[in-house]
Amino acid sequence: MELTENKEAIAAFREKAKKLVSQMTLEEKVSQMVNHAAAVDRLGIKAYDWWNEALHGVARAGVATVFPQAIGMAASFDEDLLEEVGEVVSTEARAKFNVQQQYDDTDIYKGLTVWAPNVNIFRDPRWGRGHETYGEDPFLTSRLGVRYIKGLQGHDEKHLKLAACAKHFAVHSGPEGIRHSFNAEASKQDMYETYLPAFKACVQEAKVETVMGAYNRTNGEACCGSKTLLQDILRKEWGFEGHVVTDCWAIKDFHEGHHVTKNALESVALAMNSGSDLNCGNLFHYLGEAVEKGLIKEERLDEALTNLFTTRMKLGLLDDQEKTPWDDLPYTVVDQKKYREFNREVAQRTLVLLKNEKHILPLQKDMIGTIGVIGPNADSRDALVGNYEGTASRYVTVLEGLEDYLGDDVRILYSEGCHLYKEGISNLSEGNDRISEVKAVCAASDVVLCCLGLDAHIEGEEGDVSNQYGSGDKGNLDLPGLQGEILKAAVESGKPVIVLLLSGSALAVNYAQEHAAAVMQCWYPGSQGGLAIARVLFGDENPEGKLPVTFYKTTEELPDFEDYSMKNRTYRYMKQDALYPFGYGLSYTDYELGNVKTSAQKVSADGLDVSAVIENKGLIEGRETLQVYVKVPGENTPNAQLKGLKKVKIGAGEKTEVKVHLPKEAFGLFDENGKLVYTQKAEVYVGTQAPDHRSEELTGKRPVKIEVEIEV
Question: What is the model's pLDDT at position 40?
Fold first, then answer.
């Protein structure tokens, strides 16, 4: 469903907002420009906290559906699914808001302005916050971000269901430990080719209501005080009409970390004059003094407040006469049965099968007497949820999911195996104090599930985690602690070993790829994750996920973490083979492509269509993603880039035609000045994976290549 905004209604809101601002004193204006905005009783303005989170469900405000973490949902490669998730999240958020208002609860995390999605590019697997994103590819990030925003904001022509936020603008992906002082240097080419496209799509296609600035500097300018980003690009180039919020306490970084200003007064002036409208934090309390000292014109405050009040009016918050379609949503819609079932379905569709030697999966229940379940993530709730999470009414860990699924039919033997990253589980032990138990479990089992990886305690946001590496980032791509040792012990038992990786980022699991019978990337699969994993392991569901990030073989092949050049980064620019490539993921069935063609041999201003028939040659139903890549030939041009995708459901023995449109822009590249340029020819690759050597090696398949000409 396309967004049909009622421009007259929005213009009327803006006029009302201007009128409201004109009645306010300077002190009252200032009180509205921090996240915890005060009540102005004489004007009928209620207290309101702008800070709320909804990265993968309503967060930090009690019970709600906890969906898989964003990186997991990205692995679905399914735009429609992301919008469906957004619709559930916004429904629960509205229902919770209705009762919060009923009981005069205007605390933090209780508003309708949600600071999600995170559409930064996951350019380096060491970044701790990468699991909040949709991966390393700007096209995939754009498509999923746009649809999640549409699900959050709704399709009412007059009112927003929620106000979504594209963050963190821009060029932000670590290191976490120095984000308050770091200057990310990016060429114009990399800016327009990689770091900006998702934000542009969120602004121009999804009409996102809010954009959040980043903590770091970009090319010398503090992002929340950047004329280049907030005025030249966001407002003028892209036509953004919503409001800009700073990241939390980012303004104090101007003088304390970046040293682009001397004090708090100068910092708030820079932020306000550059285009920030709302301060998450408290430094905008200095705005009144800044106006009085001539550092800011009061008209700029009026402009910012008009943006802010327009948002609140779109949400139906500032006019008792303005009713929205969601005002009567009852609290009982929250965490309802159909949402729990949908959450499980989403989790099932995010799992990525990376290896399946001799088709060991799916497991056959009647062929197994005893199953061993080992590893620190086997019975871990933390490994289900990622960060910026809500509270589930029930969490189903991998162990619990298997117990629920198998009942008394199969004996389960369990060992935690080792701590997630420490040398021992018992503080007084000599270390590796569960290894004998691991060996005993493996010896007594017919098959062993090794549940390894990370959790949000050791990969996440600076100040929000307690990892041994520092500030939430990973120091390397290895399995932490003794996890590698318990995996080796399991393999050496001689029993078939299936590795389940619960993590929000890529790990260099070369040993698992070489020695395990199967490997499945499970991400942080949400509160229903354990049951979803069990159902896929035993064949009730067919794995369909694709990797939204590259899995590298070694840490050493990565460029310097602080280098923001895209050279040798991600599948688009790397020269070496990956361990597991972007866009890769196996299935229990086999799909075959046929009748691949383009609607024209020449790319006109309208672009062209690509179509293919996908046939399910196997015995079970499944979903497959048609992936279309474009390679522009030339020296130092990127590898083939994802430019089109479509997920389809296909029954066993059935076939379906899939069509994907490629706009002309899909065939262009940006030059060193950030301008889109075209060559005379390009190559289109159509398949179910990326057109790289490693993908072909792993699947035995090769996308169809079509050469096209371009009208220049």
Answer: 97
